[in-house]
Amino acid sequence: MTDKTELIKRYIFLLAGLFVNGLGVSFITKAGLGTSPITSIPYTLSLGFTPTVGMFTLVFNIFLVILQVILLRRNFQLQNLLQLPIIALFSFFIDLTMSLLGFMQPEAYAMKVVSLIVGCLILGFGVFMEMVANVAMLPGEATVRAVSDVFSTDFGKTKIAFDSSMTVMFRHLDGVREGTIVAAILVGFIARLFKKYIGGIEKILIS
Over 80: is that where the pLDDT of 200 sits? Predict the structure, then answer.
């Protein structure tokens, strides 16, 4: 297989991963127990202003790319700017899946919890798909990777710490509830489990 063919397959896998990520975020949000940590600010802003969650997500993630430049300095590579069109697609997928899940309005608390857990599983798998594609990452995960590289820490553990810190810092926002805390802890952990147990899928799907 040529390098070009493999690269195309990796980008296709990444595209699928972006949709899965968007679906996971929307599923967590629709559970009604708070949204995912990285989406808490965009979601809260969308409640008070006209732009959608996806639109605010785009703006917020551009800020994260700038943060990566500050963290990595000379180590920030031009290919990392691919995050910009990728986040544009991710933002579109959030709005698309929010619309597709418009029917989803769990009333009972138990159903809200089930929906939250399913959303965390979906989002965790989406993060895993980004890792397998290994061509570019969403700014949220790329920022975590930048922190992990600069301070030599484990990616999964760093993501949990990053998401948890977002939850603590912005706990007064309307989009931050118990579900946000659960997502902050579970998503990074789930992504690590997928990588541990089915990480070999890369050889089948990509190579």
Answer: no
